[in-house]
Amino acid sequence: MRGVTSARQQHQLAEAGEPWWRQRESERKRPNTRTSSTIPSPLCASSLKMACQALQSGESLATLKNESDSLKKKLEEERAKLHDVELNQVAEKVELVSALSIRTRRVLKGHGNKVLCMDWCKDKRRLVSSSQDGKVIVWDGYTLNKEHAVTMPCTWVMACAYAPSGCAVACGGLDNKCSVYPLSLDKNENLAAKKKSVAMHTNYLSGCSFTNSDMQLLTSSGDGTCALWDVESGQLLQSFHGHTADVLSLNLAPSETGNTFVSGGCDKKANVWDMRSGQNVQSFETHDSDINCVKYYPTGDAFASASDDGTCRLYDLRADREVAVYQKDSIIFGASSVDFSLSGRLLFAGYNDYTINVWDVLKGNRISVLFGHENRVSCVKVSPDGTSFASASWDTSLRIWA
Amino acid sequence: MTIRTIRPNRGQHYRPRMHCLQKIEAHMVEMQDPKSGLKGAEQKLNVTTIPHVITGQDIIAWLLNKMKVTQEEAEAYGTMLVAYGYIYPLQNHRKLVMCNDGSLYRFQTPYFWPTQKWVAEDCDYAIYLAKRNIRKKGVLEPFEQEHYTHLHTWLNHKWDFIVMQATEQYKAGKERKKPDRVVLDCQERAYWIVNRPPRRTHSALDYGTDRLIDPTVEEKISFDQHRRMNIFYQQAIMRSKVKSSVSLGALVKFVNTYKNHDPFLAPCLPSNPWVTDNDTYWTLNIRRVDQCTKMRVERWSFSFFELLSDQRGRDDFKSFLKKEFSGENLAFWEAAEELKWGSAAAIATKAAVIFKTFLAPGAPRWINIDGRTMGLTVKGLDHPHRYVLDGAQTHVFLLMKKDTFFRYLKSPVYKEMQKRALNPELHNFSEAQLEQNARNRSLGVHPITVWEQEEEERAKAAIASAPVDVKAMMSKIDRK
């Protein structure tokens, strides 16, 4: 009888929340949608029910595919209708950026192997970095002191994050987990003893980020999902399904509500998610290859993405479309990481050809190229007060530029 | 829960580089174009003549012309071409760089390009080394010797096969003409230098860990996935969008507002700590300062969110609210934030405290929100979850943003702040002073110490003040 969902049907609905990617084993924790910690969305439940009914008469895989294609085209048309002006036209009256004199100010040496990820602390001078050999080091970038070092039990620590309070770091990689290490002022303390395993995925961890406090952790994984975890208990609060391939990066929105985040993956899509409901709110698919990194614009109304196809693109969330492509014929190698300067005028992008390009976000041209690294640049992040940016590279060093 | 450790070989090795390799190949084809490409010459090398040899200078000049880039970029790209194995050096075959002089290079045959569909397997490498061993009568280069010994151990079970193959290939090679043999040797040697570099040197073909998705397999989308996609597209079509001129205009406006505050675009006052090694800029902008800088105070006026994000601004706003006797709004907002971002276990306790302090009729810090929101919130508090206060919190935030914030900006408190604000002088250090600064970089305060201090302050404030400081209680419940 339609309209009445029995307990069994409800269980089926929960099952239907499975990831789309069929090649994966479904052995991960199921989102606990019946507890009081998340709000079930009525639209979500009914649409899942609709989706999982068997093929109706007159429908076939081909007709559904045609419908998908035509809807996709219609969406593009709708988006194009409101597109009345290009970004560089709006920015015509903005004055040009004067020549920047950005140089390496610090070189942080200490990792024995490729540095894969880094994150700044809110105090604007400390940072944490993780590398291929499993070492996670907390540095005071200003004095070049290494303050803490942790050796993870796995190699390829691809994600690390500093807690907002500055009292802990989170990291993870090929161990499929994200662990939180509380830091201490005592130099001799063994940080690994107090380690807390928070996130558990079915494949490698590609990105992690604390939300506005030390108590929640957002992670993205190679198994195609993102998840929100409670650090204290390790409980899964919300999971986000929708990518059909590895999710390589995520970034939280800087808005006052702080309820959304964007993720980019190997399916060439960048998805915007609502943290409360777990719904995919918006999706953008204009890249030609894997998206390595996504970063919000300072206002939270736009975001940039860096991809293996060598381009960085800017997407506007309110206009719901791509508004700028930062590319050059001479840039052949993929971009691994992007970040905006404080005002949003400059876009710093690290590439696999060992360089960092500085783009003018509004006018779309490249302002300068920064050489210095001797291997791929894996991560670029601007410091919290915008005074500098740090780049991590496979040449085992980190550089701070200002 | 199973953790997958064995990754099936799906031809992954080419995946991360695939896109750039397609572009490189296009360039390589153009470079070898008989009309517009590079012209090779013959070169005498140890008695034999090798055809189609080009100099590094010519390659870089062609790149400069074709791609319209700077000298540095052309050299970097040239080195990449050599590192990936598309062009190989004749003279110093182990050093994979492009030198902008008369050094000789040759184009690698497409058979040996990285994008070919087979992997550079250990077995093939072993055959190559064995062949070389036979030719050089046991004298291999040191790194080759290392690899050879290693492979001899690991591929011991196949060793007869390997030696047999190597001998066959060696005999076949002898039958070729000398120039062809030399060229083929060079090509093969170059291929293996790129794919099996000496230990502890970095290879351009290193791409990191495999990604799980197999790009060559056609993606099979089932019918329920299509249905979900259709629903998603329909929702996306119906969603209201904003005109580009409006949203892009907002982006430009933001840039213009903040351009003087961006340390990359306008000088930091007094100076950028990373540049001059003097951290006055940071000490002036901490939370507990008496006088703030002009830039900081100006930034508070840009938006309510900016004011709240800066702790000093928030403190100032709080003191203004105290004068107006309307501090409960901000206190409620802070408490709701603590609830939203706090630990799951503490939700129920915090919700109860908030109800008692802010929402219950006759509460000590009763907030004034409309009846409907109040009703919904109180009802939700029966079964508190993380987002139970969202409605009330948004209402209060908007109230503060649209009304209180503007009154604050016009208030004597803020105006006083602006008048007293410092405008630090731009530092002008001499070379000697800069060196001095570099030697005396200050250590600053560790964030853990700052956090502990703040906790103590909050605890003290909680004890001292009445009504109850909700924020302190929240943090204490969290930290327990």
UniProtKB/TrEMBL annotation, chain A:
Question: Where are the annotated segments for Disordered?
Answer: 1-41
InterPro entries from the UniProt entry: G-protein_beta_1-5, WD40/YVTN_repeat-like_dom_sf, WD40_G-protein_beta-like, WD40_PAC1, WD40_repeat_CS, WD40_repeat_dom_sf, WD40_rpt
* GO terms (BP aspect): signal transduction
Query: Where is there biased composition of kind Basic and acidic residues?
Result: 21-30
Q: By which gene is this protein encoded?
A: GNB5
Q: Which UniProt keywords are given for this protein, alphabetically ordered?
A: Coiled coil, Repeat, Transducer, WD repeat
For the keyword Glycoprotein, the answer is no
Please spell out the taxonomic lineage of the organism that makes this protein: Eukaryota, Metazoa, Chordata, Craniata, Vertebrata
Q: What is this protein called?
A: Guanine nucleotide binding protein (G protein), beta 5b
Pfam families in UniProt: WD40_Gbeta
UniProtKB/TrEMBL annotation, chain B:
The record, for SMART domains, names: DEP, G_gamma, GGL, RGS
UniProt-listed Gene3D superfamilies = 1.10.1240.60, Regulator of G-protein Signalling 4, domain 2 (1.10.167.10), Transducin (heterotrimeric G protein), gamma chain (4.10.260.10), Winged helix-like DNA-binding domain superfamily/Winged helix DNA-binding domain (1.10.10.10)
**Which segments constitute the RGS domain?**
303-418
- Alphabetic keyword roster: Signal transduction inhibitor
Can you give the residue ranges of the DEP domain? 34-109
Q: Which GO terms describe its molecular function?
A: GTPase activator activity
Q: Does the keyword DNA damage apply?
A: no
One GO term (biological process): regulation of G protein-coupled receptor signaling pathway
**Which PROSITE patterns does this chain map to?**
DEP, RGS
Q: What is this protein called?
A: Regulator of G-protein signaling 9
Q: Which organism is it from?
A: Gadus morhua
**Gene label:** rgs9a
